[in-house]
From TrEMBL:
Its EC number is 3.1.21.2. The keyword DNA damage applies. SMART domains: AP2Ec. It comes from the Bacteria. The keyword Cell membrane does not apply. GO terms for molecular function: deoxyribonuclease IV (phage-T4-induced) activity. Its cofactor is Zn(2+). This is Deoxyribonuclease IV.
Length: 256
């Protein structure tokens, strides 16, 4: 089980060394922008290094959207970032589940996901595995509550997509963490990555505000138990100044 952190994108390996991370997650472009990622200056070292990597797609991506001006560029961006992720040797590309607006049918968003991954499979697949991540808020989100996640997975599961479990997001969405791994696996059949984050806000708040492992509203022991049960690589997306301590805590609790 690899344990690491989301780090700055200019020199992920240096950031990994500072934190004692075995895996690093980073962006390949502006997370709030639509630009195609440029070749990473440390791509060769990242691909050849002992530190594992995972790439997070930009936050603007919304494959579920019925709006062509959002959905079509989102599809293009996912494909481009998957190609960029391959160049740095990444194990996968994390993509948020996305949403439709309050006046739109969530079933349309699910179908948009299915059409995207099916078409991409027909064209040879993604350059690296795509990990769909559960999200914290929005009544019409594709992957907030687990009943919605189940409907999404019924549509896309056959196409080999992976799943990224975010603990803060699940907690904020009103999903109990005690048995969250078992329930997620019952739906998806897999957990490929864990985003291990505490929450600054209360249970079912629908607010996505991360905290370091020891300083949020989730008991640290519960977070460690999620990691142990998932048996997947773990990335903390917590405030940078506390990431080394977060990693050390998890290693101690998991006997690593």
């Amino acid at each position: 089980m690899l344990i690491g952190a989301h780090v700055r994108d200019d020199d992920p390996l240096a950031a990994a060394a500072e934190r004692g991370a075995e895996i690093v997650q980073f962006f390949l472009a502006d997370p709030q922008g639509w630009k195609k990622p440029q070749p990473h200056p440390h791509a060769e070292a990242l691909a050849a290094g002992e530190v594992a990597t995972v790439v997070h797609s930009p936050y603007v991506v919304n494959v579920a959207s019925p709006n062509n001006r959002i959905r079509i560029p989102s599809r293009k961006l996912v494909v481009q970032h998957a190609e960029g992720a391959k160049a740095v040797g990444a194990i996968g590309l994390v993509v948020h589940g996305g949403h439709v607006t309050k006046d739109e049918d969530p079933a349309v968003g699910v179908d948009n996901w299915r059409k995207f991954v099916q078409r991409q499979q027909d064209e040879g697949g993604f350059a690296v595995p795509v990990f769909i991540e559960n999200t914290a808020g929005g009544d019409n989100a594709m992957a907030r509550r687990f009943d919605a996640l189940a409907r999404l997975w019924d549509a896309v599961g056959e196409f080999g997509v992976g799943f990224c479990l975010d603990t803060c997001h699940a907690f904020a969405a009103g999903e109990e963490l005690v048995d969250v791994v078992d329930r997620a696996k019952a739906i998806t059949g897999r957990i490929d990555l864990v985003h291990l984050n505490n929450s600054r806000d209360e249970f079912d708040s629908a607010r996505d505000r991360h905290a370091n492992v020891a300083s949020g509203t989730i008991e640290p022991e519960v977070l460690a138990a999620v990691c142990a049960a998932a048996g997947a690589p773990v990335v903390v997306e917590t405030p940078a100044e506390g990431q080394a301590a977060d990693i050390a805590f998890l290693r101690e609790k998991l006997g690593r």
